[in-house]
Design brief:
five-stranded antiparallel β-sheet; 50s Ribosomal Protein L5, Chain: A; 6 helices; alpha+beta; 26% strand
Amino acid sequence: MRSPIRSLRVRVFCHATEVPERVEAALRTLFPNLPFRMTRLEGHHGQRLLAFEGRSQDGTLGERLLALLPTADRARLRAELSERTDEEGVFHFRLDKQEAFKGLCALRHHGDAIDVQLLPAAYPRTREVALDVLGRCLGLNEDRGVRVA
């Protein structure tokens, strides 16, 4: 059976005050098989920044990620589905870097986070169809928010 998610994009910044290996470990906890590209950047004041970015056309990674979220987080995403889905049907949300390092999957509502974008397999590719597909992906049947590691 085809995945209702077509693709996944993950991006996170590692600031000069953070240990790059810990940020990468947090990513590996949630996305163990996703290849990440690291780019060295410079901040506004000359400080070191690293950007980690991963992309996949394997929609099951997006399904797995949504399944790892606790029921309350999935409920919040479902309630905010329209606000989090852009005109191209891309679904945007952020995950807590610190919780990921601890082996947990949780939404982050502000501050520094892991940025996630999911593109649903919506045909025709309209926002309305994308919202329908994403709503079904966020079904609230049971609490599957579990420790990842």
